[in-house]
Amino acid sequence: MTHVSMDSRLLLHLVTDRTLSRGRSLVEVVQEAVAGGVTCVQLREKNCSTREFLDEALLLKELLQPLGLPLIINDRVDIALSVGADGVHLGQTDLPISHARRLLGPDCLIGVSAESVDDAIEAQQQGADYIGISPVFSTPTKTDTAPALGLEGIRRIREQVQIPLVGIGGINLTNARQVREAGADGVAVVSAIMSAESPRQAAEIMRGVLG
Amino acid sequence: MTHVSMDSRLLLHLVTDRTLSRGRSLVEVVQEAVAGGVTCVQLREKNCSTREFLDEALLLKELLQPLGLPLIINDRVDIALSVGADGVHLGQTDLPISHARRLLGPDCLIGVSAESVDDAIEAQQQGADYIGISPVFSTPTKTDTAPALGLEGIRRIREQVQIPLVGIGGINLTNARQVREAGADGVAVVSAIMSAESPRQAAEIMRGVLG
After folding, report:
1. Where residue A147 sits, what CATH number does that domain have?
2. Which of A44, A79, B55, B118 maximizes the CB count within 10 A of its CB?
3. Using one digit for the tens of pLDDT, what is the confidence trace for A10-60?
4. How confident is the model at residue A1, as a pLDDT?
């Protein structure tokens, strides 16, 4: 099964992290990033109340929906349902895919983080719509991650699974192209855009590199 | 509108806190507490992954459902939906009642914490099924709470709202009866049972005090 239209929306995926926004509001950074060519936004919040998470999600929904860009919510299926998000992204310690699918229905995107070839095969079998290969390279953004899979890890996963793959972790202007060439349909970045002096320019240049 | 059967199920409400369980597993403490006469359990988890929260909820569901005792999930509507819980309890920084109701449907209980008469009136207007008056007395269990409402606070809320009221915060054997006499349909306890040497005996004695 191929997902041509989905593949293009996953090309440049911004994963948010408010702690890296250099004091700017999340919506401000996302607005800039989207103007620069980000094709998809995953809202990730780890240390705030449910109400704050909801409020951020509503702001991003309002920004992204008119542009036709998917909003994906990290972990929280209840927030995704509440705001009518386009998808959720599940880590290995979030809800199992089967539970999320039952709550979200068939049309909501479910992305799943895979730290190995086996994770990726299992996620595809369980009905994930795309896989976040994590981490591709070692990264300072997350400290609780598995060992880096590298470009070779992407190639090995690409051989085994047919759903779209998004590389995440340590991806920047110098290596994004290689991640695509190794078989990923897109890349996800956090600090390369969240912390950029101009998130718009950072996104523009990244889009140029990805081709 | 009166909820006779609901009122009796709210009589003695255990709110969990794993950090107070003195090394015992949550399910072990809850099992004891239920044997002693707890009528309702609210699973509250603040520092664990979604998967751990889900797993605890599934264990409690398995324990409580055959006994006909309600399982209420604190904050996380997605966990409540996933395990088919009987209700959710929402604090003032959790999902708004309207969002939770839309996701949960009309039959799921929605309890809401009220820290003032105004909170309580608003929660009733928005469709809460019961109100957690919090805190009745000052308590060491939660450090981020509003000033204690006292027995007088319960009386004032009782005059204004018709749905069931559950007092929480600093309630123990010496004051539980007064909380009922002030107008609460039930009491919720955390440490008085979670930390008791015998949660079963603590629940039995509390039931006796409540009458």
Report:
1. 3.20.20.70
2. A79
3. 999 999 999 999 999 999 999 999 999 999 999 999 899 999 999 999 999
4. 38
Rounded CA separation A136/B110 (Å)? 43
Residue of B50, B77, B92 with shortest CB distance to A75: B50
Does the residue A2 lie in any domain? no
In a domain, B1, yes or no: no
What is the average per-residue pLDDT within B11-36?
97
A134 domain residue, yes or no: yes
Residue A123 lies in a domain: yes
Q: Are B114 and B134 in contact (CB under 8 A)?
A: yes
**A26-35 vs A199-210: helix axis angle to the nearest 10?**
40
Domain span holding position B143: 8-210
Helix/strand number for chain B, H first, E second: 10, 8
User: What length is written for chain B?
Assistant: 211
Angle at which helix B50-64 crosses helix B26-36, to 10 degrees, equals 30
Tell whether the model's pLDDT for residue B1 goes beyond 90. no
Q: Does the structure show a pLDDT above 50 at B160?
A: yes
Partners of residue B82 in chain A, C-beta under 8 Å: 77, 95, 99, 102-103
Q: How many domains does chain A have?
A: 1
pTM of the model: 0.93
Q: Give mean pLDDT, residues B43-62.
A: 97
The answer to whether the CB atoms of A82 and B95 lie below 8 A apart is: yes
Burial class (CB in 10 A: 0-12, 13-18, 19+), B126: middle
Interface contact flag, B82 A95, Cβ < 8 Å: yes
